[in-house]
């Protein structure tokens, strides 16, 4: 039995892949383009002070693109950090990628998330350009990370504790994937980086929520407390 019906997933809308990647990681509609633009403006303002000149558009633009700095600031609300794949702190991830929480990947202004749900054998590709989440076997996860790195992707390891979600709760009680399901997890990667200015999809997604998941009001209060 697959976990897909329990996974929160947003299909690509305009150029809002950073929003989709964050919400896929956190498993809920926690960030909007407006929220991320506010963070981007705040970062631009701080950079303007540092450089002694007006800085605009370094961290976001009107198309819906957001920088890695915006994503890092957004995740700091959850005390989550992003560690570059090639750094010395990422050695354990390179040796055993299935033991990590998640990865956020980037190329050509496109962001997407690879996420584990509770157990090492329940990894999914949550790329918003797909029709739905796709299962990744442990073996193929490592192969995929090597492949996209060779294609020029920047890969960031997510460190910290992710908020609870219904998919995590269900994954704990599911049997390990069958050989048939594992074979599906070896489908060739089709998420090669592209600019998304001409790609517009409907914003349908799975609305699965968890009782342990903070409410949107609580998240907004945390954002206000952190960013003002």
Automatic annotation (TrEMBL):
Residues 175-219 are annotated as: Disordered. It is an enzyme of class 3 (hydrolase). InterPro entries: Ataxin-3, Josephin. Its EC number is 3.4.19.12. The active site is at residues 17, 110, 127. Residues 200-215 have a biased composition (Polar residues). GO terms for biological process: protein deubiquitination; proteolysis. It catalyses: Thiol-dependent hydrolysis of ester, thioester, amide, peptide and isopeptide bonds formed by the C-terminal Gly of ubiquitin (a 76-residue protein attached to proteins as an intracellular targeting signal). Residues 4-173 form the Josephin domain. PROSITE patterns: JOSEPHIN. It is found in: Nucleus. Its main location: nucleus. One of its GO terms (molecular function) is cysteine-type deubiquitinase activity. Keywords: Hydrolase, Nucleus, Protease, Thiol protease, Transcription, Transcription regulation, Ubl conjugation pathway. It holds the Pfam family Josephin. One of its GO terms (cellular component) is nucleus. This is ubiquitinyl hydrolase 1.
């Amino acid at each position: 039995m697959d976990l897909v019906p329990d996974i929160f997933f947003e299909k690509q809308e305009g150029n809002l892949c950073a929003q989709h990647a964050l919400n896929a990681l956190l498993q809920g509609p926690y960030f909007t383009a407006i929220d991320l633009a506010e963070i981007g403006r705040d970062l631009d303002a701080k950079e303007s002070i540092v450089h002694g000149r007006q800085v605009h558009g370094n961290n976001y633009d009107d198309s819906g693109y957001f920088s890695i700095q915006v994503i890092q600031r957004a995740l700091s609300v959850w005390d989550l950090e992003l560690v570059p794949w090639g750094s010395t702190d990422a050695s354990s991830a390179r040796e055993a990628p299935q033991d990590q929480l998640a990865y956020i990947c980037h190329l050509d202004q496109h962001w997407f998330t690879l996420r584990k749900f509770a157990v090492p054998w329940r990894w999914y590709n949550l790329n918003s350009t797909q029709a739905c989440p796709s299962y990744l076997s442990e073996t193929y996860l490592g192969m995929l990370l090597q492949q996209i790195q060779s294609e020029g992707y920047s890969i960031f390891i997510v460190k910290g504790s992710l908020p609870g979600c219904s998919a995590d709760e269900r994954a704990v009680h599911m049997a390990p994937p069958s050989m048939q399901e594992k074979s599906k997890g070896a489908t060739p990667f089709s998420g090669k980086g592209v600019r998304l200015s001409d790609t517009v999809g409907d914003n349908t997604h799975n609305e699965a929520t968890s009782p342990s998941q903070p409410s949107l009001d609580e998240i907004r209060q945390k954002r206000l407390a952190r960013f003002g």
